[in-house]
Amino acid sequence: MKKGLEKLADFLRDRPLILASCALICAVLGAVLLYNQVLLNRTVQTKLASAEAETLPSIHWYDEQTTAPAATTQTPVQSIETEPAAAEYVVNTNSKKIHKADCRYAESLKPENRAEASETQIPDLLADGYTYCSVCCG
Prior knowledge:
By secondary structure, the chain is of the alpha+beta class. 46% of the residues lie in helices and 10% in strands.
């Protein structure tokens, strides 16, 4: 390794113009990289500032008020109508099996053998001889 470095040193010593050219090229490339880094930082800071302005709410700190704020016109609250909850269980009245609503066997029940039940009705059904499905409730 030392031999190779000595050869390179001898080569550059005999050719000072090549050494000066390499130094100049390195300095120019360093300056270009520094300039690009400065531009990149400015671009990123500008984009972050604009993104924060668009997405983050502005926060204003105010002095505490000792009096109640003035009355404003209030808009009436809209009522939201909800649909009744879907049945949690499906009961086969013929086989006396209790299925979860999404059970594959519950989906294929005949309408005349199908009844819906909620969680609160299960104890009564069990008392009447119904049993849980071994696939979905087992």
